[in-house]
Amino acid sequence: MPRVTIRDVARHARVSTATVSRALSGARPVSPEVVAQVRRSAEELGYSGNGIASALRRSRTDTVGMVVPSIANPFFTALVESAEHALQEAGQQLFLCSSRSDPGLEAQRLRTLVARQVDGIVISPVHGTESTAAVAWAAGRLPLVQVDRYVTGVDSHWVGVDDDAALGLIADHLAGQGVRTAAFVSSRLTNSSTELRLSGLRRHSARLGIAVDERQILLGEYSIAWGREAAALLVEHRPLPDAVICADDLIALGVLEGCAAAGIDVPGDVLVTGFDDIPFSALSAPPLTTVHQPQEQIAAEAVRLLQRALGPGEGPHERIALAPSLVVRASTGRGD
Questions:
Q1: Do residues 129 and 35 share a domain?
Q2: Domain of 30: which CATH number?
Q3: Are 35 and 23 in contact (CB under 8 A)?
Q4: How far apart are CA 125 and CA 144, in angstroms?
Q5: d(CA 290, CA 114)
Q6: C-alpha of 230 from chain center
Q7: What is the number of domains present in the chain?
Q8: Cell inner membrane among the record's keywords (predicted)?
């Protein structure tokens, strides 16, 4: 079937092509009767127009770029999905890029998005310092919102979870379960989330009298494989702590696997907690106690801040730390 053109709509509505353009774009005043007539003709003929061209005439592309460290990590997958839904509500499309936890690739992705003339960028930076130059460069050219993680020294909005409060929830819960010693398994201290979670652990464990042996602070990467390896190290260098606090759920799932392989009972011999509340955390054996991040709210706030940055007269940049919640499951001795 041949593509319906603006000329076909004009002929059907018995008006000029210029009138059709004005009626559909709202660029200039057209009587309500003519607008209704043109729209009726467009609908009957199946004319959709050229949204990209219209957006370009408004100096907008109605597209937003998003850069995340990994789309394989279920936390970021869910965050991207929530952002896409929020952008759709705002009439915008998402260009998704994975930086694969590589600052060099992240910088390349940012350059590509700027070249594509996206309206703005949402990014969770890979590295606390090595990402700074590229994020600052992009923020100097387009509205930019940092989510979950952030780099300092860049003037931009940020929205994420309150990591310190999250570690406080974990520590309070474990203390209530009689925990007196704890290990911490995380990625290397290369991003704001990891650093804040470790500092939160130290602060709240000291507050509650939970001893954290520096030799049992194990730093690797956000992966199940590292969690298994960390569990093997803890088993090898006993005595075991009362609890293993993990910086994300992937690590915690690996710790559960490692404990099972070594004959260590969870929660009988050691308690285990995660962070993020990915869907798999409720399906592990045993189900995992974890921090729930309000991903939909994080994404909605990020899109709201981006829309504000795209509008006239933007005010000062905001830093929004959303409240976490703790989902208690059997890995810490209590069921759902």
A1: no
A2: 1.10.260.40
A3: yes
A4: 12
A5: 37
A6: 26
A7: 3
A8: no
**Paired tokens of 126:** 């890979």
Please list the pLDDT of the chain residue by residue as tens digits (336 residues): 466 778 888 899 998 877 877 777 655 567 878 888 888 888 788 776 655 444 444 467 789 999 999 999 999 999 999 999 999 888 899 999 999 999 999 999 999 999 988 999 999 999 999 999 999 999 999 999 999 999 988 989 999 999 999 999 999 999 999 999 999 999 998 899 999 999 999 999 999 999 999 999 999 999 999 999 999 999 999 999 999 999 999 999 999 999 999 999 999 999 999 999 999 999 999 999 999 999 999 999 999 999 988 877 667 899 999 999 999 999 998 654
Cα–Cα distance, 336 to 327 (Å, whole number): 8
Same domain (yes/no): 182, 287: yes
CA distance 219 to 189: 8
Measure the CA–CA gap between 194 and 24, rounded to whole angstroms. 50
Q: Note the pTM of the prediction, 2 decimals.
A: 0.81
Same domain as 289, residue 221 = yes
Tell whether 56 is covered by a domain: no
5 phi and psi, to 5 degrees?
-110, 170
Q: Which CATH number is 71's domain given?
A: 3.40.50.2300
33 and 113 inside one domain: no
Sign of CA dihedral 192, 288, 180, 171: positive
Structure tokens at 328: 């208690």
Alpha-carbon distance of 336 to 328, in angstroms, equals 6
Query: For residue 218, what is the enclosing H or E element?
Result: strand 211-220
Tell me the residue range of the domain where 10 lies.
Answer: 6-49
Classify each residue of 222-237 as buried b or exposed e, where b means 16 or more C-beta atoms within 10 Å of its C-beta. Answer: bbbebbbbbbbbbbee
What is the C-alpha to C-alpha distance for residues 278 and 291, in angstroms, rounded to an integer?
10
